[in-house]
Amino acid sequence: MSLRAAPNEPHEPSPAMFEDQPVVNNGSSRIGGGGGGRAPLDAAGDPPFVSVVIPCFNEERYIVKVLERLCGQYAPARSEIIVVDGRSTDATRERVAEFTRTYPNVRVRLLDNPARNIPAGVNLGINDARGEIIVRMDAHSIPSSNYVRRCVEQLGGAEVVGMPWRIRPGAETPAGRAIALAVAHPFGIGDAKYRMPDGAPTEFVDTVPFGVFRKSLWADVGGFNEELLANEDYDFHYRIRQRGGRILLDTSGHSVYFARPTIKELARQYFRYGTWKAQMLKLHPRSLRWRHLVAPAFVASALATAAAGFWWRPAWLALLGVVLPYALLSLYCAFRLARRAREMRLMPIISFVFLVIHTTWGSSFLLGLLRAPRRQ
Length: 376
Hints:
Layout: E1 50-56, H1 63-70, E2 79-85, H2 92-102, E3 108-112, H3 118-128, E4 133-136, E5 141-143, H4 147-154, E6 160-162, E7 165-168, H5 174-182, H6 186-189, E8 202-205, E9 212-214, H7 215-220, H8 232-242, E10 247-250, E11 255-258, H9 263-283, H10 290-308, H11 315-340, H12 347-370
Parallel strand pairs: 1-2, 1-4, 2-3, 6-10, 7-11
Antiparallel strand pairs: 4-9, 5-11, 8-10
Helix pairs in contact: 1-2, 5-12, 9-12, 10-11, 10-12, 11-12
């Protein structure tokens, strides 16, 4: 969960990255962070109690921005924020303590996560939560000012509600900007709806990044699988869908997600994603989607034809038939992204980022099918 500063990266994120301003509430009982509508009422006529759970590790750059944006989104008397920290080694805990002193009317609790991984942290926070409605938030994704209220309102029509990402650079460098563009494009990441900049106002999907759901549902499906150190959200949502539950994506709001700042960190991220996606598919083979197979098929076919060429030279022509169409499509998509960003010098970097995503994800997925990863 850590997003470390790159050499050319600002120590604090620019306010312009967040798209709208935080709605801070130091005591008002009004529900809302903009817009109309009301949250569903409980049996006593009160809005349901909401617990926001934030797993966290070394997020001193973003944690205060996240907390500020969550202020005022729901009635302070009927909500709490639980930060579950994996024993951060930076100033994350100090930033949370400073925030609680600055905003004494906002109920914030800090829990310790000795396991130091995301699913364990989420389960710890939910288990300790007072609320029947859980908002699973992230420490370096800044929610829009209507995220909590709107998702709670929509829970009547779905078991889990979430909003899409608006992906922003993790560093204001050419590589950082290229990464942010690539991981929001279908050629880079497939048909994951929550990563797409434009979509239907609401639609049912297979997963959302930061879902809102009832604590009773979490208990019924057995919580988040702590054996999965990535893809735990997809696994959780898959088990809900197997019970007939629906996952709703609402595009009336968003969360600003900061992509990895360097290509090296991106490669590590996608190698981890591929490894743990393979473990999840071993548990739930029927959860397989076409997008899960594209990168592994590309890597496997390129390796197989390259190796075969040492024994049978015509196989290298087949390798050209694999690599050339990929390279042309990659360059075409990179060209369109760079032109849209009005920064044509990003074109070769974007194309290289595509290659890094596909080869690291594809190769780690194949390796993950053959062996179980070490838990670190």
